[in-house]
Specification:
The complex is a heterotrimer of chains A (about 220), B (about 140) and C (about 140).
Chain A: E1 2-6, H1 10-21, E2 25-30, H2 33-43, E3 47-49, H3 55-60, E4 68-71, H4 76-88, E5 94-99, H5 105-110, E6 115-118, H6 119-130, E7 136-142, E8 147-153, E9 175-180, E10 200-205, H7 210-218
Parallel strand pairs in A: 1-2, 1-4, 2-3, 4-5, 5-6
Antiparallel strand pairs in A: 7-8, 8-10, 9-10
Chain B: H1 5-16, E1 22-25, E2 41-44, H2 50-55, E3 63-66, H3 71-83, E4 89-93, H4 97-105, E5 109-111, H5 113-136
Parallel strand pairs in B: 1-2, 3-4, 4-5
Chain C: E1 5-10, H1 15-26, E2 34-42, H2 54-73, E3 79-85, H3 88-98, E4 103-109, E5 112-113, E6 116-117, H4 122-129, E7 133-139
Parallel strand pairs in C: 1-2, 1-4, 2-3, 4-7
Antiparallel strand pairs in C: 5-6
Helix pairs in contact in C: 3-4
The chains are: A alpha/beta (about 220), B alpha/beta (about 140), C alpha/beta (about 140).
Amino acid sequence: MYIIVVGGGQVGYYLAKALMDEGHELLVLEKDAARTAFICNDLGSVCVRGDGCEMTTLAEAGAGRADMFIAVTGEDEDNLVSCQAAKHKFNVPRTVARINNPKNETIFKKMGIDVTISSTNIIMESIEEEMPTHPLTHLLDIQEQGLEIVEIKIPPHSPAIGKTVKELSLPAGNTLSLIIRSQQKPFVPDKDTILEAEDQIIAITTPESEEALGTTLRGS
Amino acid sequence: MGCGRVGGKLAGLLDIEGHNVTILDIDEYSFRRLPPEFGGTALVGNGTDEDALKKAGIEKADAFIALTQGDNRNIMACQIAKHIFNVPRVLCRTYDPLRQELFGSLGIETFSPTTIFAQMLKERLLKAKPTGEKKAK
Amino acid sequence: MEFHKILVPVTGSTADDEAIRLACRLTKKKNKGKIWVIYVVTVKRSLPLDAEIEPEVKKAEDVLNRISNVAENEDYEVETDLLQAREAGPTIVDEAVEREADLILMGVIYKRRFGQFSLGSVVPYVLQNSPCEVILYHQYTP
């Protein structure tokens, strides 16, 4: 695959290195001359000095034959504009953008950027997982369907303990898809499965009903 | 969005005509460019930030104009205004003619001062030429 | 001054002929030394690295043949190589390292860019990064 990475900062540099190790053809576009020289020196002739938002730079970089375009500069507006240029001007099949301000995720999605990665959100999620009091942990967003996969642990005094899945009256559209119970193999619950304290549950929910799901399984 | 020379001037002109104008800039010092009699609102805030835009009343705005020095910032702000807040009229300054072309085709009303000004200068220059030549002969 | 392994990057300029003659003179006599002549075809990023760029490859082959003949007239047999790369500078340096050359000898001609004298980007890169001695033969072009 031919991959163009815009931005040769820490993220761009290590990303380039990792993708090259996987055997991809790669090019980093970096505005700063010294940084460009550093990357070329370290990784070979895979970095060109230039602005990844300039059409002429993108044309010279061979954006027309790129399979993937990844914008990871520290500026959201630059990532948004260069990804749109890649997508609409050069028809790159897959565009990926780093988002620094999580609020910008909506506009990136609306403008058709295929994949967005918000570093702030990733850090938040990792911290969430480490917080014992947090009701549920987001594992994955399925953005096209408006669904999310979450993990919930049943606390010792939860009203759900001893009830079957059927009796729980889960919010509409919510499904418990897996239960991880200590000293047992993870299993898929059915409507008659009885919940126990300390069960770890992987569930499918929606952003609107995740709070209700949390209350049902953990109590308020 | 953007209280530079053009932004400040435009805000003043619209204000005199009786429009309800809010101008946004990340630097309070920029507001010195507004005419002293400016009767609109001047807000410190980043125009690519949805909350700052809401504060500026974008949900009720009839038009949004981006005039900062950064082409990309202008484009992003305009896309937010148009696609998230559904502002009916959105104008964007883009110095780079190529970016102007692309985002123009993607539905943002863009102006490139570079192209407009170069074209204007050329026309001025060539219009004056015939008379100049006659004199020389 | 005598060298054992000389790398001569050529570009098809008029300075190439004199550069190869000089290389022959600087190599150990009786063919004990080795001379490699390389031509680096630079491939634009808009094309894959292994793209077949006919006219350029043809030109490179012609240049390498011509330079071989010049060397033959000096009673030297040189080895020629056509390389395809993104950038000439690093490729020349890499070749010199790999072949353990003790000299890089390049012919350059007077170039103007935007009205200013310019060595281009390849020569300065080689001078800066070469693993061995470098001799530039700068051809006088009035």
